[in-house]
Amino acid sequence: MVTPEIAPSGREDLPVVRARSWASLKDQAKIARRLGLTGALLMGVSALGSGAFPVPNPLNGLRVLGLPSRNVTAAIAVTYAGLGMVVLAWLWIARMLSSRGAVAPAPERRELTRTAVLWAVPLALAPPMFSKDIYSYLAQSATLARGIDPYTIGPAQALGIGDPLVGGIPTIWRDTPAPYGPLFLGLGRVITALSGENAVLGVYEHRILALLGVALLVWVLPRLAERANLEPGLVLWLGVANPLVLFHLVSGIHNESIMVSLMLTGLYVALGKDDSPQPWWKITLGSVLIVSAAAVKLPALLALGFVGVYLVRKRGMHVRDWLVVGSGLTVVAAAVLGVFSAATGLGFNWLKGLSAPGEIRSWMSVSTDLGLLSGQIGRLLGLGDSTDATLTLGRGIGGVAIGLVCLYLLLKCLRGTLDPVTGTGAGLGAVVLLGPVVHPWYLLWALIPLTATRAMPHYRRAILAVSVLLALVVPPTGADFIFRAYQLPMSIIAGIAMFAVMLVYVRHQLRAASRQTEFLL
């Protein structure tokens, strides 16, 4: 035991104070990691009742595994308690990390990666949560595998309402054509060939694909962080261990994991480790990866525009430079999209499905809210119901605003006052927020790139706040509660109570650790 030294003023010596602070923070990091793992385990187990299951539920009739599905309200409550633990633990560790380096006893990059993996494992093994999009993926891929154009008709019409792959799709999406690019449906067709009509097997095959995308993020984000002179551990924690990534890419299996990872890898390959000129083959390879991301979801193509203006600026911004860069990138984009489109056998029919998500009215969309509000005001003023017209106008204004914002960002990148990664993230943020449809996981298009930019320390708190808020707004079942509106509030209240009990326990653990530290010092 070390005896504290007393300075003449009667206060403890500064090295002892620092040692006590170091030990206290080390204990906090350990408790925070355990808290997050406990929350993830609770979510994984409770997902057996609160998850987004296919129809019919494969757990029906099972004595042990089917027990949570027979007590859905309790399962959702446990899920919310676990969700709160994961979010709190993530914020807790984020506070210990500096943008210039993880100072001991803050967890280092290897430790952070290990923690993120441990938190992700229970969610990766559990049934999907927060969304039923995975069943649309399966049905649309099966439609293509049967030689039917998924960009023309919806799964219900193509496969029949009684098909086991259609049962898990929410009613609103059953007649909606596929809105995804040819690369993603091509990958889905391979999965369908392996899983057939087995929805459970198909879900886990898609999850493997999503996890490969997350693994690619683990590879590329630290490299982008070093390019921006940021601490790789902090960027990994904000961009991969983020609850939005764990909940919506690992658990929810959204194809953003493929889109964003390919796009960022393409940016890194095309731009290089620093601002030095890159050989043509790296620029070409990076462009191919970006276009491949756009063949999953088209907005990723915006990154190619920022690579283009960056290259033009590097070459001197002469007319010849615009022609060489512009024609080169156009040829790459046309060739890659042409190959993927031909591989599906449907050509460029996938462009028809890009408007499919706009059929719903998303409350998170600024342009949609503007159109709906204008329609309601017109009704109150006695001008009749013109909601459809005002909605079209509002979304049109949003589209113009997206174009202006992206043009402004491209001009800043051309002048050298904005780097391409920041421009891509900010531009995709405008596409999401001003677009006709916004889902919480769409914000990952912007959020993940923005964690690896030089400006990140200035908006770090905003990233934390947005991530926490969006992690809480989507019910774990991935479905609405229209006919059981009582269930969700009851589950949330019970979940908060369980979360509060856990906080009391954590506080007790912190006090015990603090007393032990004082004894040792």
From TrEMBL:
The chain crosses the membrane at residues 35-53, 73-92, 234-254, 283-310, 322-343, 363-381, 393-411, 431-450, 462-482, 488-506. It comes from the Bacteria. GO terms for cellular component: membrane. It is a multi-pass membrane protein. Keywords: Glycosyltransferase, Membrane, Transferase, Transmembrane, Transmembrane helix. GO terms for molecular function: glycosyltransferase activity. Its main location: membrane. Belongs to the MptA/B family. This is Alpha-1,6-mannosyltransferase. It comes from Pseudonocardia endophytica.
